[in-house]
Hints:
Elements: H1 26-35, E1 42-48, E2 51-57, H2 73-95, H3 98-123, E3 128-130, E4 135-137, H4 144-163, H5 166-185, H6 188-212, H7 221-224, H8 227-251, H9 268-274, H10 280-318
Antiparallel strand pairs: 1-2, 3-4
Helix pairs in contact: 2-3, 2-8, 2-10, 3-6, 3-8, 4-5, 6-8, 6-9, 6-10, 8-10
Amino acid sequence: xxxxxxxxxxxxxxxxxxxxxxxxxxxxxxxxxxxxxxxxxxxxxxxxxxxxxxxxxxxxxxxxxxxxxxxxxxxxxxxxxxxxxxxxxxxxxxxxxxxxxxxxxxxxxxxxxxxxxxxxxxxxxxxxxxxxxxxxxxxxxxxxxxxxxxxxxxxxxxxxxxxxxxxxxxxxxxxxxxxxxxxxxxxxxxxxxxxxxxxxxxxxxxxxxxxxxxxxxxxxxxxxxxxxxxxxxxxxxxxxxxxxxxxxxxxxxxxxxxxxxxxxxxxxxxxxxxxxxxxxxxxxxxxxxxxxxxxxxxxxxxxxxxxxxxxxxxxxxxx
Length: 319
């Protein structure tokens, strides 16, 4: 790369320690590009008209997203404010129409629902293969799925440490802690009930993760390739559909999805009541509790993401 160009956005370097286009610190960006991590006391020399000036900094916990490559922080701030509320409104409007509800469930809710079963199974030590309409769960706990998940999370934690990303470190550590509890503390019988509940329960969690991801990864292809918009659509559609099912069931118990397919497979709700002994009130209340918890978490992430975008937009104005 041309030494006179910014390591992040490749714009011509200007006088000063930061790039006026993307806001990146030249020294930090160069260290991350060259070594994968901004180490302690990395020195970088930037050529100025009056001669070289050494730049020294200490960076142990710096998140590489602190200087994202954003062409227009003002537009990004508007996106952060409007994207999630607007997408939830659109998803709710589609859900109010019968054909829209069918499309939502077919294209968005079912994949997230089945992945919810699979993720819960992996956390509980069971092998699982999600498909569009059904998730294949192994009969007994094994070693392959737990070790594979642990290895993936170990890589995530290592990568987070390597690039100084607190987000990856926290996510990896949290998942490892959940895996420990679900695999080694919870009994196999309770784990099976949790896997059945995980279709909608973990589905709600996955849907808010897809939406909350809008505020993260702005130095990755998720942001640059606009994948975050696709994830936002999927997450909002699934979240609205699953929420609507259980709030309707709370108002009218006849809305609880007690169904049996033509092939004899029972719905998750029916299995939780008939096979695992859940009461009807427990069934509804646990789903509603998960809905409310997910709403609260999404609201907190939304407030944080909007505030962060606002700060960056104001910082650009002052330059």
